[in-house]
Amino acid sequence: MNSFVASYLIQEGITNGAIYCLLAVAILLVFSVTRIIFIPQGEFVSYAALTYAALREGKLPGTVGFTLALVSVMVGARLLRGIAEGNLRHSLLEALKSALLPLLVAVVVFASAPYVLPAAVDALLAIALVTANGPLIYAIVYQPLAKSSTLVLLIVSMALHLVLVEFGLFFFGPGGARTEPLLDLSFSIGSLPVPAQSLAIYLAAAVLILGLFLFSERTLYGKALRAAAINPLGARLMGVSSTMAGSVAFAASAFIGAVCGVLVSSVTTIYYDTGFVLGLKGFVAAVIGGFVSYPLAALGALAVGLMESFSAFYASQYKETIVFTLIIPVLLWRSMRRRGTPEEDH
Amino acid sequence: MLLECSDLSVSYGKIAAVRGVSLQIAEGQIVTIVGPNGAGKSTLLSALMGLLPCSGPVAYFGRARKPAPSTEALVRLGLGLIPENRELFAPMSIDDNLRLGAFDRWRAGARDMEASLAEVFALFPRLEERRAQPAGTLSGGERQMLAIGRALMGRPKLLMLDEPSLGLAPLIVRDIFEIIKSLRARGVSVLLIEQNARAAINISDYGYVMEAGEFVLQGSAAELANNAKVIETYLGVSSAAKAES
Lengths: 346, 245
Ligand SMILES: Nc1ncnc2c1ncn2[C@@H]1O[C@H](COP(=O)(O)OP(=O)(O)O)[C@@H](O)[C@H]1O
Ligand SMILES: [Mg+2]
Fold this sequence. Notes:
The complex is a heterodimer.
Chain A lengths: L2 H32 L6 H16 L5 H24 L2 H25 L6 H24 L7 H23 L13 E4 L2 E4 H23 L1 H11 L1 H6 L4 H23 L9 H15 L5 H21 L4 H7 L1 H12 L8
Antiparallel strand pairs in A: 1-2
Helix pairs in contact in A: 1-7, 1-10, 1-11, 1-12, 2-5, 2-6, 2-10, 2-11, 3-4, 3-5, 3-6, 4-5, 5-10, 7-8, 7-10, 8-10, 11-12, 12-13
Chain B lengths: L2 E10 L2 E11 L4 E5 L6 H8 L9 E3 L2 E2 L6 H7 L1 E4 L11 H8 L1 H5 L5 H11 L1 H5 L10 H14 L4 E5 L7 H14 L5 E6 L2 H7 L2 E6 L2 E7 H6 L1 H6 L3 H8 L1
Parallel strand pairs in B: 3-8, 3-9, 6-7, 7-8
Antiparallel strand pairs in B: 1-2, 1-4, 4-5, 9-10
The complex binds adenosine-5'-diphosphate and magnesium ion.
């Protein structure tokens, strides 16, 4: 291997690593606030990529139908619960409040779909629509299970992943989508060409991670979210409901996934089920971070990205195997370090 | 009445921890509940705060509310609870803990964060000196001050305190009781739970004695202080010595 190939592989590895890093951050965020191991994180990526691709082609994305379906299920479930608990009016009000924003975004996307809009506008619309789905999914699937154990939540996450992949097939069809880069430029560092899209991915990763950091350290909402993760009862007594915190965490996770989706759709062809593998690699990175450490997860994500691009070069048919095998030494190392410390009961 | 309940019961599964309790707190009052460990005092506070389901209606701030309001709704109405183990945000700074105390009011549009902080710091200068320090590194007394300060940031109309003197040194206990007494002047009424019955009854207007899930005795602070049974069980030489030590 010459140095050109090596630096090319490194560049590709970092690009992928940046995406995995974002997904790992989203997975960690959801876990720390809700104790949910959110397997379907990658589905937001496919959904956003396919939404964006459809909008670029002037077609109505399946996500609109999906969002409407989610809204109806959410409203229906809230009403049923309201009837059961005898406070129908309150439930109706709450349901309509939660439905308002997703419906609004869905209508805007529906109305603008046939028109050819600038790529940036389509990207924003796709991201907004997918982001709106995050809190809906939380409200329908997880909120009723708020008191369940992590294991139950994990099993539900697995099931939800399968369901979302099937919905992806139903709403988007089996075809893949690839979009033009948002910026069709290329730079070179020395002899190495760096496509602008890779730069956009680095930039997005940096901005999102910095933004999340500032959000959680500098804004009262961010602090409330952290407080809910640290001490749910204490937070509740301050008026920070775990439901609200969960909702915000899911919105953030969907938002991050959607940004990744729009960005990767110009780097690789995305199918309804592509997101899962991306999300899984983010998951590996999160595991490397012990599901608590953001910096370690970020390093893990870079390691996963680099490992992947080098193994793609040397042993391309084993590239996924090699990446996922990475998790075994990490788990061994972690379990060795943990020996003797009592298992946290949560 | 700020809070009024009658025949309120709370159970954990089949075990009734609070049975048929009736309680009233008027504006400007400090009301105390004393009783031995396991009497159901904390359980009662949890239920009043909407953390546990209970049977029997509770009227908050002069209105019976049905269905029972959520904890978050009660916070919005002006009810505060400082639980027995304070429930601070240990890794976060004192400053952040206090600001979060005003989260709900801030979300509702209040923009008096700095003024509220200044008030709390005036009450507890020690917290201001340590404002950047994580709450988890504070001493027991400082943690209780932070818990009270954080609760005051929410400007509650009624504050419920669960054994605020538990595990604190006597000098600090005295300070804490002084502060609780001064809350009334700030327009905060108090529902106080205490094992330190003498100090609690001293600053109260009215009191209840709770045993095995029921109120066995109630009366004005003076009546309780002169009641033979209360003197024997809660204010006697041994318990007084305990409170002093
Ligand atoms: N989470 C719980 N589950 C079951 N029983 C409980 C629980 N918490 C308290 N109890 C029981 O309820 C009774 C009242 O407890 P508590 O309200 O803590 O009393 P106090 O605060 O007066 O010491 C006790 O018998 C206690 O064992
Ligand atoms: Mg107690």
